Amino acid sequence: MKVDAPARIRINLAQRELEVEGSEDFVRSFGDRLERMMELLTSGAAPPVAATRAPAARLGSFGEFLHHLPGTATDVDRMLAAGFYVQEHAPDRSFATAEASRRLSEHGIKIGNPSQCVRQSLMAKRVFVVERGRYRVSQTGRQHLRQLMGPVIEEEAGTGALDRAGDGA
């Protein structure tokens, strides 16, 4: 029985790194997508996500947004919702624990340990770290908020240039 030698593609791009390893056929299956992705990255074309992103105005004021939370919402849910609201209004689409906590306290909602709430969301994969001290609500987090708050939380369409690199665009 012939065993294929492992093949590998490694891209560094100043240590952000991407590595695909496996059989030659498996690695080759990523070739077209990686070539398109590299063309997008090296051309300097800005992903059109910012231009096509729905305006945060659909969320209304923070107070109106909070009214969509059910009375049974936990402190972790409140922090997740506040973080989502802050990120949707931030240019870098991220939030810090202090920003979300401050929004809640401005509306009379006191969270006992905001950092612990964010850690719990992080462990549940409802948020992820963007950079030190900055977070973004994940698709799992959006789904959780949609279950709690209904259609005020829209599904995020993966329309970024890198998302399209894999679908033949």
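the 2nd protein, sequnce then structure:
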Amino acid sequence: MNKVEYKNRYDDIFTFEVNERKNIDWKGNFEWCRIGYEDNRDDLIMVDPSGGPYIDLGMDMSLFGLEGKVAGFIPQEYGYELVIEPCDVCEGKTYHKLTCQNNPNKQPKVQVK
């Protein structure tokens, strides 16, 4: 599985790991954290732990070396599961085919199992 570590400005370590649903498990210290909601507490639109990283809906996860854009947040005991929107060109897959116009590298991607 793809796993990336991120160190924020307070030296807290956050990890991003692609899970079996092809979403991303975001783990770290969320003790001090800003959370934004749409209309009710079930509609998360952003999460900003103290020191970062700030993540909101539509954020391109290539900033962290991962594929896809954030389509939602699922609170978990360990932090958050970032729901990744599928590529509409690639038949709903969360990775891009070689010929996909949305593929930033235009190279084959390794499918995470």
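The chain has one domain: 3-84. Residues 3-84 form one domain.
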